[in-house]
Each structure stands twice: as structure tokens, then as C-alpha cells.
Write a structure and sequence with these properties.
By secondary structure, the protein is an alpha+beta fold. The chain is built from 15 helices and seven strands.
């Protein structure tokens, strides 16, 4: 720093000398200095230039050091001549009792934001905090008898709370018998936002489904989307041999996203010999998704049409596993295409169980529950 100040002082001194010299020449009051009078000024100017160059070299070196700090992988240390600031200490994790007290205060004054942060922090404390967290979540999702703070169940528990929770807590909710069916379902929905799950959480879900507990079939899509080794093995095993037809059917429908030889073998086997007719239909649907015989719209649950003031009614003309190929001789590729092109009297070309049939619509379709498929 001393070298920098010295250089700047010399630089400004030479500016002053040059300015006075220029004034003298402009005013004509005295002749320009010569000989011995000029020598000190030239020496000072040369010294100022040396100091300036030294400052420039120092600045370039500091910039290079800073660039080295910010570039490349791995931790780097600061240059020896730069002061090193102490790192900020990590905030200490609050205990369950501290968080419970903070929740009580935030709940008392009705501050939703702090409540969300407090409960999210509590979800990261581990399983010993889960019963307390579950009780506090229920307190936030139902009307408070004191009228201090309560919100609509869906918005508070699902959007604002469950979405911020640690996935291990959500797995704990859906794998433990609870009296609250709503929070059970909200946790299942929130789990989709934490895909993929850890292997430990996949195993815990698999054990719950194997026990055929309440809502276990609703956990199959979570495992399917997580798609870890444990999840894949579990879904394939349940599709083959789970005691519950609902679990087998849910497993088979989620397998429509896995195009592997093993998946195709399991689906073909289920389509031929599963004892439950509904499961056999589900297996045929997944096979049609993976290997469609034609390009068109594969109907999953059906189609519906407008019914005046009464809203909508299901259209009896289309059924699950129908593939609508054309409408009025025009190809259709998406459910939106199909719904927008139909009118009263439209003729649909439909592939049903391998046979081409023609359906005459008595009224236009308002929507189709299905997906577009493309023949390979």
C-alpha cells in the first residue's frame, strides 16, 4: 500500500509541474526553464513513471491471483500477501424443542412464512421428530377452534408444507398407519417432487406395498418414477405376483414407461393369464403404448361429450384400448386433435382388438382421456 501511495503522489506532483510549466509558457511572463532548472523535473517525472509501472504490475498480479482463486476445480487458497477473512460459522441446527417453541410463537401471531420454514427444518431432524411434525402439520391443515390461523387444507398442507418437507418424512407418513387419510394422500403427491428417491426410501415403500396396506396401489407410481434398481425390481415383481389386483394393475400401467425386453415379457404374460380381467385390460393397454400397431390416439378411460346445462357425459362409443386412427378420413395424433375435429355425424376409424371398426358419432366429443401413440 505504501508503494501505491508513493507512486500516486509522484504522479500528481508531475501533473502539477507540467501544469505550471504550461501556464508559464502561455502567459509569456518568463522563458521556459532550461539546463539545470529542467533536470529535477525530468528526474521526478522518470521516478513517477517507474512508480506508475510498479503499481500496474502489482494490479496485474493481484488480478491473476484472484482469477486463479475463481477458476478450476477444487479448493484454492488465497495468495500469501492477501488478507484472509475468517469463514462465517455454520448456523447451528436448532433442536426439536427450540423449533416447537418457535412454531408456537409463529402460530400465535399467524405468520405463515415462518411456520413453513420451521416445519421444513423440523422434517430434517430425523425420525424422532416425525410424530411431533405430523401433529403440527395436522394443526395447520384444519380449522383452528381458536380462529388464530388456518387455511384451506389443500393449499396449506400440500403446496406450502408438504412440498418443503424432507422426503424421508413423507415416506414415513405414507408407510405408517395414520388416522388422517388426507395427509396420507398429500404426502404421496408431494413425494413426486422428490424423484428419484434414495434406495432406503424405495425399500421402505416396497415393504409397505408388499404388506397390502391402505392406498398401497397409489405408491406404485412413485416407485415407478423413482426408477432406481430397487424400484424397478419391486414393480416387476408386484406386476407378476402381488396378491392385490389393484397393486398388480397399478404396477402394469406404470410399466408403460419402461421399454425393455423384460417389461414386454411381463406385460404379455399378464395380458394372457392374469386371473383378473381388469388387470388383463391394463396389460394390453401398456403393450399398446409400447408397441402400437397404428399411429393414432390410444383411449385410456374413454371420451366425453358436452351435455348442455348438465355438463359432460361419457361417450359410450369409445372404450379403453381403442386406437382412433382417423376422423372423417383425416389422421389424428393427439387427444386434442381428435376432440377438436369431431362434429355431429363424424365417422371415426378405430382399431379395436386388432379389428378396424367405424363409429358414427351422434354428437361431437368434448375431450378424450388418452394419449397419442406412433407406430414404429
Amino acid at each position: 500500500m505504501r508503494d501505491v501511495l508513493t507512486g500516486l503522489a509522484g504522479f500528481f506532483f508531475m501533473l502539477a509541474v507540467s501544469w505550471m510549466y504550461a501556464l508559464g509558457r502561455a502567459g509569456g511572463a518568463s522563458p521556459p526553464p532550461t539546463g539545470a532548472a529542467v533536470a529535477p523535473a525530468e528526474a521526478a517525472l522518470a521516478e513517477a513513471r517507474r512508480e506508475r509501472d510498479a503499481v500496474r504490475r502489482d494490479v496485474a498480479r493481484l488480478r491473476a491471483d484472484l482469477a486463479a482463486l475463481n477458476a478450476g476445480p477444487g479448493p484454492r487458497s488465497a495468495p500469501a500477501d492477501l488478507p484472509v477473512e475468517p469463514a462465517a460459522p455454520e448456523p447451528a441446527q436448532r433442536t426439536l424443542e427450540e423449533l416447537r417453541a418457535a412454531f408456537a410463537e409463529a402460530y400465535r401471531i399467524g405468520e405463515k412464512g415462518p411456520i413453513v420454514e420451521i416445519l421444513a427444518a423440523m422434517s430434517r431432524l430425523g425420525e424422532e421428530a416425525y410424530p411431533t411434525l405430523f401433529d403440527l402439520t395436522r394443526r395447520c391443515t384444519y380449522p383452528d377452534p381458536d380462529g388464530i390461523i388456518w387455511m384451506h387444507r389443500v393449499s396449506m398442507s400440500d403446496r406450502f408444507l408438504m412440498a418443503r418437507y424432507d422426503p424421508a418424512f413423507l415416506v414415513w407418513v405414507v408407510t405408517n398407519a395414520t388416522p388422517d387419510r388426507y395427509l396420507h394422500w398429500a404426502a404421496i403427491v408431494a413425494l413426486h417432487r422428490h424423484i428419484p428417491l434414495s434406495e432406503r426410501d424405495e425399500r421402505r415403500l416396497a415393504e409397505t406395498i408388499a404388506a397390502d396396506s391402505t392406498n398401497s396401489s397409489n405408491l406404485i407410481p412413485v416407485l415407478s418414477l423413482s426408477a432406481g434398481p430397487v424400484a424397478r425390481e419391486t414393480v416387476l415383481r408386484f406386476a407378476r405376483s402381488h396378491a392385490s389386483a389393484a397393486v398388480r394393475g397399478s404396477s402394469i400401467l406404470t410399466m408403460a414407461n419402461w421399454d425393455t425386453p423384460e417389461t414386454l415379457r411381463v406385460l404379455e404374460e399378464a395380458a394372457r393369464q392374469d386371473p383378473n380381467e381388469r388387470v388383463r385390460i391394463d396389460a394390453r393397454y401398456s403393450l399398446l403404448v409400447l408397441r402400437p400397431p397404428e399411429t393414432g390416439v390410444l383411449v385410456s378411460h374413454g371420451a366425453f361429450r358436452a351435455n348442455g346445462a348438465d355438463g359432460y357425459t361419457w361417450c359410450p362409443d369409445l372404450a379403453m384400448n381403442d386406437i382412433v386412427i382417423r376422423c372423417d378420413s383425416q389422421p389424428v395424433r393427439t387427444p386434442e386433435d381428435l376432440a377438436s375435429t369431431t362434429r355431429e355425424g363424424s365417422v371415426l376409424e378405430v382399431l379395436r382388438d386388432g379389428t378396424l371398426v367405424y363409429i358414427h358419432l351422434a354428437a361431437p366429443l368434448a375431450g378424450v382421456d388418452g394419449r397419442g401413440v406412433t407406430r414404429r
